[in-house]
Specification:
- It holds the Pfam family 7tm_1.
- It is a multi-pass membrane protein.
- InterPro entries: CCR1-9-like, Chemokine_rcpt, CXCR4/ACKR2, GPCR_Rhodpsn, GPCR_Rhodpsn_7TM.
- Keywords: Cell membrane, Disulfide bond, Endosome, G-protein coupled receptor, Glycoprotein, Membrane, Receptor, Transducer, Transmembrane, Transmembrane helix.
- The protein is built from 13 helices and two strands.
- With about 375 residues, it is mostly helical.
- It has a single domain, classed as Rhodopsin 7-helix transmembrane proteins (Rhopdopsin 7-helix transmembrane proteins, Up-down Bundle), CATH 1.20.1070.
- It has a two-stranded antiparallel sheet with strand order 1-2.
- Strand 1 and strand 2 form a beta hairpin.
- The termini are far apart.
- The relative contact order is 0.11.
- The N terminus and C terminus are likely disordered.
Length: about 375
Amino acid sequence: MAMIKPNMTGNDNYSDYYNLISDYNNLSLNQVCKNDNLRSFSQVFLPTLYSIVFIVGLIGNSLVVCVLVKYQKRSNVTDVCLFNLALSDLVFLISLPFWAHYAANTEWTFGGFMCHTVTALYMLGFYGSIFFMILMTVHRYTMTVHVHTPHISKHWSVRASIVLVLFMWALSLGASLPAIIFSQVKNESGEWTCRVEYPQGTAWESFSYIELNFLGLIIPLSVMVFCYSRIIPVLMAMKSPKKHKAVKLIFVLVTVFFLFWTPYNIVIFLKFLHRLGYMNTCQWDQDLNIAMLWVETIAFSHCCLNPIIYAFVGQKFRNLVLNVLKERFPLCFGQFPTTVSQLSHRTGSVSSRSPEISSTKIV
């Protein structure tokens, strides 16, 4: 690299030289900010946490899918939404072993095609899980608040729900496309990396941060707060003995979503500010990277709770899960009494239109 000798005869030349030195100092600062201790910590922390989330989430969501496929012979709208929520969580979870291996080895060894594929699974599952939670919330709202409005409630058929499901998957794909397209494998300092590299001088990276904040927190949380704030007064006016349990479940839904996703989105917003030049110090860079390790894992573990919150809270659904476990693992679960199979034989299908049977309805 040729040495650039400054010309100090004019103010313009001096300004150019000063800018050159500033750019060199910023480059040096970025190099100093590479924290080897953080890298060593993430080599142990991320694979461990990703593995736990993968195992727990895989078990819970697989049970939901198995129960819905095996027993729900006459699916309703709620079952269709719940099935796709669990499916999107499973799509997301499939990507975690690859990221765990990547973090442990600090090098991407799966090639360019798998870099695009794993990124696609990651983003599709991420947005799909959020969008299907929104769809389930809107469905609950219309079926509770507008249940006596014929021109609204009559549109919630299974066929209409399938169209909405396809639209949600298309919407998830559209939101994921920038990350999928711009993900690439690069050789950096002799190590292969898989990351999203947006073109320099474009607004794609800033757009990605804003997209995550709006689609990942602001919009879904706003929909949940609006819908459930209208649902609760309707529930409290009912004479059903289960209304208090339903209200508690609503608070759990909103609170868990807020606690698990808000820290992640706050760090995303701070990284957006950091990219714009605010808080542009090594300390902030290191703090944000450490914070991202924690809040990312907390947010990702939400997919482990979805089966519990949306499915396992119902007694009938828990019985169905137990029945599946007894069939698959008779030595471990064979001692539990069989009640679901008897119910299935009597009715021919455990999926009833009664609100008590559908595990994800509010009352």
